[in-house]
Amino acid sequence: MTSSPFLARSREELRGALSRRRGPVALVPTMGALHAGHAGLLTRARQAVGPEAPLVASIFVNPMQFAAGEDLDRYPRTFDADVELCAEHGVDVVFSPSVEEVYPGGDPQVTVDPGPLARVLEGASRPTHFHGVLTVVAKLFGLVRPDVAVFGQKDYQQLTLIRRMVDDLCMGIDVVGAETVREEDGLALSSRNRYLDEDQRWRAVALPRTLFAAREAARYGASVAIAAARHELRHARGVDLEYLELTAPDLGPAPTTGPARLLIAARVGTTRLIDNVALELNGDS
Ligand code: PAF
């Protein structure tokens, strides 16, 4: 038996719904088009606050994080199915505001500057993206006032920047990074996978294969790990690599030994996919 979440469209409805509940508030911010990856975030959020505490999922396709020519208009919108998935995963409140509700005066004058980390990796080809992401996440934090917020590790740079914002601006929110959920063949779940046709879907497996090859080889050091990744990519047809970057877990310069992160972005057809894995580097490199 699942019970329907309360649907809040306005700030007042949201505050009303939360004022009737007790306990730490958990928030899972989303742009809808929910899939099993989001279900994982909701499960993780519920674990974090316990069975009785209020769990809020926001569904808001944030125009501020899309540049002109990106997929804002064709971003998948599957609201009824999203609410059903929320109900199945114990969400108490779905907050689904309009653009006017989130940005009442149009473009905000005061926004969050995401700093230098937003200009590398994803930011190199999407220079305004994280400015929009951090601004809307700060707004959602202000509106929902969560104690815990859960984001996916699949968007690792986003997760890292949100952690940074929460620390640097003393927001006092516990940011949890949930494990990436993958298809059986390793492809990370993403709302954008639905843009892939059958052939592209098959080719897209090159991304996780590249990352997993590097993870396996990491015990021989960073240069062997990168060579293993590049070897995988040489066999990948129809996959246009944008970047393959080895970094520290906080996205600083890559260490020579110990924990590291490998991040990849590539286009398969017209669809841009990203993925990443944690590595443990050993040996000389
Ligand atoms: O990861 C997303 O879906 C979005 O970037 C987020 C965090 C909901 C902000 O719009």
Please describe the biggest sheet, giving its number of strands, its sense, and whether it closes into a barrel.
Answer: 6 strands, parallel
Our measurement of the CA-to-CA distance between the termini, rounded to an integer number of angstroms, reads: 55 Å
* Beta-strand fraction estimate: 15-25%
Category from helices, strands and their pairing: alpha/beta
Structure description:
The protein is α/β, with parallel strands linked by helices and 285 residues long. The protein is built from ten helices and nine strands. It has helices at residues 11-19, 36-49, 79-88, 99-102, 122-125, 129-144, 156-168, 198-203, 206-217, 222-234, and strands at 6-8, 26-30, 55-59, 93-95, 148-152, 174-178, 239-247, 258-268, 271-281. Strands 1-4-3-2-5-6 form a six-stranded parallel sheet, with helices on both faces. The protein is globular and about 55 Å long. The model has no long low-confidence stretch (mean pLDDT 96). The protein binds pantoate. Pantoate (PAF) binds next to strand 2 and helix 6.
